[in-house]
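Handout, section B. The chain below has 103 residues.
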Amino acid sequence: MSKIEQIQEFLKKQPGDAFLTHALALEYIKAEDLDRARNLFEDLLGRQPDYVGSYYHLAGLLAKMEEKQRAVEWYEKGIAAAKKAGDQHALRELQNALEELVY
């Protein structure tokens, strides 16, 4: 059973689990199934906008998909979420990634 299949099985038992959804999206990125990864991240952040770590990965994915403006928007949303959560580490990572993309 692949990692994707394993995570999908866990999600059947714990639907909507943010950690598992995030992990599944990362596995889809590894498998080059970028649209599916994007959909999972967007769904996750729509349901749980405080799941700060997913902003970095979604924005990076969008940049990889050559959707620069959407990537910028998600980095900015992530920066706001990290500030709200008081997560200084995530805040620095998001700000640095945004700067690299824009400048």
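Note. DSSP finds six helices and no strands in the chain. Compare this with the example in section A.
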